[in-house]
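A note from the maintainers: we've had questions about how concatenated examples are separated. There is no special marker in the raw files; a new sequence line simply starts the next protein. For clarity in this README we add a label.
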Amino acid sequence: MRGLPILVLILTGGCVADRRGDQNTCPVHESALQEDTVRILYGLVLRDPDYWAAMKARFPLSNREYLGGCMIGCCSASSAQVRFCARCRQAEAEWWAQYPEALKR
């Protein structure tokens, strides 16, 4: 019985959260969504305000990573299944290439 907490931690530490939702089409590009498994970022994610505005307008379903919030526990998933738009991912990559200084802010 003493080893049970360690066993539970080992079994749940690498689990994958299903965050695919019900959406099948990108509202910006009208493209069919694909599926991917991405890392979950926990904590306060600080990004340039221009990035958030561009994301909403140009690449809302890039979903290269999943923001998991500020609370993390022993049973928190490390990866998430998501749906993404390939054209959103391309638009996001182009945005970062155009504004590399945003990474430093």
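[label: protein 2]
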Amino acid sequence: MNLVKEHKEFIAKMNQGKYPDPLPLQGDHTENWNLFDLDFENYLVTIGEDNASEKVKIAHMINVVGIPIFVLRGYGIRKSQ
């Protein structure tokens, strides 16, 4: 499969689901995270990635939340050894 076709299929898949609402950084962080996590899980279902590998789910999470917030929340990003 060529890159252009893969990209078009990826964009079509992404347009099936609505991105979760942004993760609020004010207020009750635990409640905010739990609500965001639920919204994110629903997003994965709508784009058909709920049974994807953890690596794919993390890639989606980074795209939705952004790398800076991931580092701020202490998750860090490191390559597998």
